[in-house]
Amino acid sequence: MTYHVPFLKKAYSDSYKLAGAELGVFEGEGAVRLCNQLQFSILYLVDPYLLHKGYDGYSGYDQAEWNNIEERMKKALHIDDTGIGVCNGQRVKHLKMMSVDAAKTIDDAALDFVYIDANHAYEYVKLDLETWYDKVKPGGWVMGHDWPYPTVQQAVNEFMAARNIHFHPDSGQLHGTHDWWFRR
Ligand SMILES: C[S@@+](CC[C@H](N)C(=O)[O-])C[C@H]1O[C@@H](n2cnc3c(N)ncnc32)[C@H](O)[C@@H]1O
């Protein structure tokens, strides 16, 4: 269960159309939940589905398995071969690339939130924070998953300390969940 969804639902009115990005999509379970519960002008779904050096998540999977996972994600979110889809009435776009490269395709201050759930190694979480922070509008939300990973905690804590940012009082991990977030 991810707790950023009810938080966003509470933070925005039902008629507001969010622009958001999920970094690391896997089979699309979290993305479908976002589409089922929130309104979007656009939800960017960033995942290369690539067996690559530097990523040890799902370490037993070969490239054929990643291709299958991508297909399952596209089916779940009704995404066609151009990468565009409509899931529960919400416009989604698959960016089949590394999160650091996908950030280059998004304007600064374009998003209401980013949800970081890609490579959980320290260097990658740090890079995701550094490259995606400016993509979020001032007042928007920088969010992520898997707070129990020491690597996630280190990268997030360092990033926030350097900028004197504090967690929102409703932030998931402060209430015992695995999601965390702070205001941009
Ligand atoms: C923990 S899963 C994501 C789960 C998903 N957010 C959900 O709610 O079901 C991590 C995903 O991150 C992707 N990934 C790994 N490195 C990445 C990177 N550098 N940029 C974007 N995605 C990456 C993997 O392909 C994998 O599908």
Descriptive overview:
The structure is a single chain. This protein is α/β, with parallel strands linked by helices. Helix 5 (122-132) runs parallel beside helix 6 (150-163). The chain has one domain: Rossmann fold (3-Layer(aba) Sandwich). It has a seven-stranded mixed sheet with strand order 3-4-2-1-5-6-7, with helices on both faces. 33% of the residues lie in helices and 23% in strands. Bound molecules: S-adenosylmethionine.
- What's the Cα radius of gyration? 15 Å
Q: How many domains is the backbone divided into?
A: 1
**Mean pLDDT across residues:** 96
Bound small molecules, deduplicated: S-adenosylmethionine
User: Structural class per helix/strand content?
Assistant: alpha/beta
The fraction of residues in strands falls at 15-25%
pLDDT < 50 runs, ≥5 residues? none
* Number of alpha- plus pi-helical segments: 6
Q: Under the CATH scheme, which architecture would be assigned?
A: 3-Layer(aba) Sandwich
What are the secondary-structure elements, in order, as H or E?
HEHEHEEHEHEHE
Terminal CA distance: 24 Å
Strand arrangement within the widest β-sheet reads 3-4-2-1-5-6-7
CATH class: Alpha Beta
At the third CATH level, what is the topology name?
Rossmann fold
Shape type: globular
Name of the CATH homologous superfamily: Vaccinia Virus protein VP39
Please summarize what this structure is.
The protein has 184 residues and is an alpha/beta fold. Helix content is 33%, strand content 23%.
